[in-house]
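hiii, so i know i said id send this last week but things got crazy w the move. better late than never?? heres the sequnce for the chain we talked about at the cafe, plus the structure i predicted for it. fair warning i was half asleep when i ran it
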Amino acid sequence: MAEIAEGGGNEKGGKKRAKKSSTRVDMTPMVDLAFLLLTFFVMTSTFNKPKVMSLVYPAKIEDEPNPPKQPQINNAVTFLLTEDKIYYYEGQYFSAGNPQGKPATVLSETNFGPNGVRKYLAERNAYVIKNVEQLDSKLTREQKKLMAEGEKDTIYERKVIEFKKHKDALKVLVKTDDKATCKNFIDLIDELKIAQIGVIAPVDLLASELELIKAKK
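okay and structure toks below
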C-alpha cells in the first residue's frame, strides 16, 4: 500500500508555503504476490524426467557341487568387452572338446565404426526395427508431439514391448573382464538401445571365455 505523508508548511513573513508531500510504498503485498507466482509456476511446470534404461540381471547361481546346466540360448548374441576390444559370438557357447560334440565357439571382433556394432545389430534385430518403424508411421502428428514432450502412450509402449519379446527379436548378453573400460560399456548399451534390443543381460564372464579372449588377442 502506498502512503502519502504530508509535511506542514511554516509561515514566514506572513506568507504560507506550499505543503510538500512524500510517498512511501509498502512492498509487503508484492512479496506475497511473488511467492504466489513462484508457487504457481513450480506446480504447473514439467521437470525433466530421468532417462534410464532397464537391464535384466539374471539370478546369481551360488557355488554348488552340481551347478545347474546352462540354459539353451536362442536367437542371442554375447558381447565380450576387454580394454579397447569388442568381441562377440552368436548362440550358445561351447568350449573345445565339449561333451555335446559341438564345434568350439569362435570369437568375432567388431568396433563402433559405421560397419561395426550398429550395422550388425540392425541386421540381426531387423524384425523389431521394421515393426517399430511401421508402428511409428501410423502415429498421428499430435501423438508424436505428445510423446516428444515426455507423455506416455500405453498402447504404443505395449506393442513395442510385444515386438521386443517375440521369439524373432534379438537378445543380448554383455560380459566384461577387469580390463574393460566404462566408456565402451556405456557406448555398447547406447547402441543396443538404438537397435531396439529389448532383452539385455549383463552376466559374469566364464573362465573359458576369458581364455578365448586371451587367445584371440
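btw Strands lie at 2-7, 20-25, 76-82, 85-90, 108-110, 171-176, 199-202. thought thatd interest u
miss u guys!!
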